[in-house]
Design goal:
Blueprint (H helix, E strand, L loop, with lengths): L1 H20 L9 E6 L5 E3 L3 E8 L2 E2 L10 E8 L17 E4 L3 E4 L5 E10 L11 E9 L17 H25 L4
Parallel strand pairs: 2-9, 4-5
Antiparallel strand pairs: 1-3, 3-7, 5-6, 5-8, 8-9
C-alpha cells in the first residue's frame, strides 16, 4: 500500500500543480495596438491603410455579437472620440466601425494626422476601462500606402480548460484507487 501511495504521490502532485497554473490569477485586460502606420511616420497619400491587433478580447461584427463583451473596433482619423461610459460612438467622416483588423481612409489630405483606435462593446460604446491606442503620422502626396493583410487575433482558452479537466479526472481516479486499496481484504 505504501508503495502505491509513493508511486501515485508524484503524478498527483504534478497534476495538481498543472491544474492550478492553468487558471490565471487575474483575467487579462484586453488590449489594442496600431501596427501601421507607426507613430511619427510619414506615409504616402492620398489613401492611407491602417492596421492593428488586439489581445484578450473576442471580436465580432456587432450584428453577430451575442454578448456585450464581444467587441469590435472604432477607428477615428482626426476625430477625438467621446469615450463616456455607455455613450455609443457616432458615425461620420473619419469614423470607422469594424470587426476587421485594417481599414483604408481615402483621400487623406497631406499634413499631420492623428489616428485613435478604441475597443468598443457590441452596442458601440467604449470598453470600460477605455482600451485605446493612438498614433500621429504625416501624409505626403503620393501613390498610396500598401499594408500587409493582418489576421484577427482571438485568444484560445480551450487548452488550459482541457488540462484542468484531465488533471481533475486523474486526481479523482487516483483517490478512488487509493481508497479501494486501503480497504482490508477478508
Amino acid at each position: 500500500m505504501r508503495k502505491l501511495r509513493r508511486y501515485l504521490a508524484a503524478p498527483v502532485f504534478v497534476l495538481v500543480l498543472l491544474s492550478i497554473s492553468a487558471f490565471p490569477a487575474v483575467a487579462a485586460e484586453p488590449t489594442v495596438r496600431i501596427t501601421s502606420p507607426a507613430n511619427g511616420s510619414t506615409v504616402a497619400g492620398p489613401n492611407v491603410t491602417v492596421t492593428w491587433e488586439s489581445s484578450d478580447v473576442t471580436i465580432k461584427p456587432p450584428a453577430e455579437a451575442m454578448a456585450k463583451e464581444e467587441g469590435h473596433y472604432h477607428a477615428f482619423l482626426d476625430v477625438v472620440p467621446d469615450t463616456t461610459a455607455g455613450k455609443p460612438f457616432g458615425k461620420g467622416e473619419g469614423i470607422v466601425h469594424t470587426a476587421e483588423t485594417s481599414t483604408t481612409f481615402e483621400n487623406v489630405a497631406p499634413g499631420e494626422h492623428t489616428l485613435t483606435l478604441v475597443l468598443g462593446y457590441n452596442d458601440h460604446s467604449a470598453w470600460q476601462p477605455v482600451v485605446e491606442d493612438k498614433v500621429m503620422f504625416t501624409v505626403t502626396e503620393g501613390l498610396g500606402q500598401v499594408a500587409p493583410a493582418s489576421g484577427q487575433m482571438q485568444p484560445n482558452h480551450k487548452g488550459p480548460i482541457l488540462l484542468v479537466v484531465i488533471a481533475s479526472l486523474a486526481i479523482i481516479l487516483g483517490g478512488v484507487v487509493l481508497r479501494g486499496r486501503s480497504t482490508p481484504t477478508r
